[in-house]
Amino acid sequence: MKFFFFHLMPYGALDLDYLDNHESPWVTLPNNHYDPKKGFELYHRYLDELELADQLGFDGVCVNEHHQTAYGMMPAPNLLAGALARRTTNAKICVLGRALPIINEPITIAEEFAMLDNLLGGRFIVGFVRGIGCEYHASGANPGFSLERFREAHDLIIRAWTETGPFEFEGKHFHLQYVNCWPRPYQDPHPPIWVPTQGSFETVEWAAHPDRKYTYLLTFSPIKSVQSNMDNYRRVAEGYGYESTPDQLGWATPIYVAETDEIARKEAEEHIENFFNKFLYSPMEYKMPPGYSSVASYKKVMEQKMRVRMKYLSFNNLIDEGMFLCGSPATVVETLQKREHDLGFQNLVAMLQFGTLPAELTDKNLRMFAGEVMPKLQASSPHVARETAPAAE
Amino acid sequence: MADHTSETIEISGCKTAVLRGGSGPIMLFLHGAGGAGAWSPYMDALAKRYNLIVPSHPGFGASDTPEWLDNMSDLAFFYLDLMEQLELNDVHVVGNSLGGWLAMEIAVRSTQRIKSLTLVSPAGIHVKGVPKGDIFLWDPETRVRNTFVNQKMADARLAVVPTEEEADITLKNHFITAKLAWQPRFYNPDLRKWLHRIDVPTMILWGEGDKIIPVPYGEALKELIPGSELRVIADCGHLPHQEKTDEFIAGVNAITEGVAA
Fold first, then answer.
1. How far apart are CA A113 and CA A106, in angstroms?
2. Which of A16, A21, A320, B235 has the fewest CB atoms within 10 Å distance of its CB?
3. Interface of B with A in 187-226 (CB under 8 A)
4. What SS3 state is found at B187?
5. How far is C-alpha A323 from the chain's CA centre?
6. Considering only CB atoms, which chain B residues are within 8 Å of A144?
C-alpha cells in the first residue's frame, strides 16, 4: 500500500452556526465570514502539516482545488504545490486535481503543471477533475458542456505535453492557433495522472481506457459505493481486454488514529461530524447543477449517495457507512487490510485533518498514523502487480 | 377540450413532438424552460381561434436531442427550417420565457413568415442592476412557488406526483435549459443590438409579480422593439398564460387583430 496525506485546507475558523442564516458553506456564504488574519495562520499551519508528512515518510502529499467555499481554501492549488516544492524532499506533490472545464484557457494548466514537474524534478502527480457541482455556480462555467470541455481540455494538455510544437489544436470549445508548451514536463511522457471521482458512468469508461489507464481515486463515499465503483473499473478494464492493476485504484477517506478506539472517537467525533455536516454540506441544487451528468448518471448518484449525504451524518452513521476510519492503530490496520483485500487498491489517500480538527490533534494523528499504521502495511499488496500503467510511473 | 393531435415530425434531422389543435390563422407557440407539457387549458383557449402548433423544442419533452444543438442560435435556425418545411406563412408567434427569447432570436434573423409576435415574460436580454431569479439554485419547491403569484396554483402543481417518465422529462428539460441558458444566464449579449430588426406588430405581456424575470425587463424590451406594446398583468407571475389565461388571450388577440399599439 502507498500512503498519501491529503489536505483540504478547510477554513477551520468557520462560525458553525452559519446554517441558521445561510444555505451552504459553498457559493452563497458571504465572504465576511472569512477572517484573513485567521487565514494567514491556517495556511501556514496546514503547509507545516504537509511538510511534516513528508518528513514522516508518506509517499505523497496532496492538495486540491475548490472555489468560493469554507470547505477548502485552495482556489489555486498550484501556488501551494509551488510552496511545498522547496520545503519537501521525498514525498510526491499531488495536485488532485485541477478542474479542467471551468478554465477558459486550459493551456495554462499544461504550462503550470509542466513548471511544477520541472521544479519538482518529477516528484509530481497531477489530477484532472470536472469539479464538483458547486464550482459551476461559482465559475459560471456551463455544466451542460462540462464533459465535452473536460475531454477536450485533457486532450489539449496531453498533446501539449507529448507533441513537438507548435501545432494547431482544433477543438470545439478550445481552438488554439499555436500550441507550443514551454517548459516541457520533466517526466517522460508526462506526470502520472489521477482522476478523483465519486463514480459516474462517464468517468470510469474514460479513465480505464487502454490509452489512459488513469488512477481512479474514489473520494469520501460510502464504502458500498467505493466497492461497486472499483469493481466496475476492473470490469470496464476487462471489457477493454486488459486486467487493471492495483496502482490504478485509489481510495480517499478521512482517518483518525489514537491510543485506543475510545480515545480516537472522543477526539475525532465532533470534528468529523463538522466536516461532513458543516463543511461538505450543500443542497442538491448546489451539488448537482443541471446537465452536469447524463440523466442516467444523475439518477444513479441520487439513489446511491444522496440517500446518505442528505441526512445528518453522525459519527455512528459515518462508521457504519465506511465513510470514516477511526480507532486504535490495531483497529485501523485491521480495517485497512480488509479494505485492501476487498477493494484491491494500492493508493490510500488519507485525509488526516478534517473540518475543525485542531493543530495538536492533527499533529498527533499524522505521527501515530505514520509510526504505527504505515509500517504494518507498507509491504502489503492486494495482488501481484502485473504491469504498470504507462501514465502512472 | 378541443380536438387536438399529438404527432412526431422530422425537421432538420430531429424527430420533433408536436401538439396541434383548432383552426383559423396559424399560431406557433414556443414553450419555456418547463417544456410544452400536455394539452392544457391555455392551448384550448388559443385553439378556439387559431390553428395552434405547439412543438417541443429539440432537446425538450419527447423530441430528440440532436447532436447539433448547442445554443439558442441553433434553435432559432431550426424554427426557420420548421416554418419553411411545414410551409407556414403569416404565422402568429407566441413565446413564453425561454420560448419568448427564442421568438426574438427567430425574428431578428427573419420575419418573412411571421405576422405578429407575442412575447410572454421572455428571457433573452440583460438589464444591468436588475437581478433575475436563479431557477438553477432554487430547490424544486421554491422554483414552483416563485413561478406563481397565486400560491394555490403552486400548491396544485406541487401536489402532482409525476410518473417516472414524467420525472425523466422534467430532468431532461431542466438539463437542456441549463445548456442553452446557463452562461450568460438566460440572455444573449448580442440580441439587444438587433431587436430593431423586428418589423412585425409585437405585444409584450408581463406578470406584475414575476420573480424570475422582473417587470423592468419588459420595460427595456418595449424600448428596444420598435412599436411594441407592453401590458403588465396584475397578480400574476412568470406564466401569464397559465395564471391569467383570460388576460393572456386578450393580449394575443389584441395583437393578432391589429388593435394593439
1. 11
2. A21
3. none
4. strand
5. 15
6. 175-176, 178-180, 182
Q: Is A291 within 8 Å of B179 when comparing Cβ atoms?
A: yes
Give chain A positions within 8 Å (CB) of B176: 144, 291
Q: Which of B138, B171, B178 sits opposite A144 (nearest CB)?
A: B178
Phi, then psi, of A284 in degrees rounded to 5: -50, -40
**Per-residue model confidence as pLDDT tens digits over B125-177:** 999 999 999 999 999 999 999 999 999 999 999 999 999 999 999 999 999 99
How far apart, in whole angstroms, are the C-alpha atoms of residue A121 and residue A256?
Answer: 32
Beta-carbon contacts of A170 under 8 Å, excluding residues fewer than 6 positions away, are none
Closest CA to A12 of A50, A39, A49: A39
What is the nearest CA distance from B139 to chain A, expressed in angstroms? 6
Q: Are strands A325-327 and A249-257 parallel, antiparallel or unpaired?
A: parallel
Q: How close, in Å, is residue A292 to chain B by CA atoms?
A: 8
pLDDT at A142 over 70: yes
Confirm or reject contact between A171 and chain B (CB < 8 A): no
Quote the CA–CA distance of B256 and B208 in Å, as a whole number: 23
Q: Residue window 51-90, chain B: list those with CB within 8 Å of chain A.
A: none
Using the Cβ of B176 and the Cβ atoms of chain A, whether some distance falls under 8 Å is answered with yes
The C-alpha cell that represents A148 in the structure block: 465535452
Three-state DSSP state, B243: helix
How many residues can be counted in chain B?
261
- Contact assessment for residue A100 and residue A158, using Cβ atoms and an 8 Å cutoff: no
Q: What is the pLDDT of residues A299-314, one digit of tens each?
A: 877 776 666 656 789 9
Is there a contact between B18 and B249 (Cβ–Cβ < 8 Å)? no
Q: What is the mean pLDDT of chain A?
A: 93
- DSSP letters for A5-26: EE-----TT--GGGGGT-S-SB
Answer whether A143 sits within 8 Å of B139, measured CB to CB. no
Give me A160's grid cell: 501539449
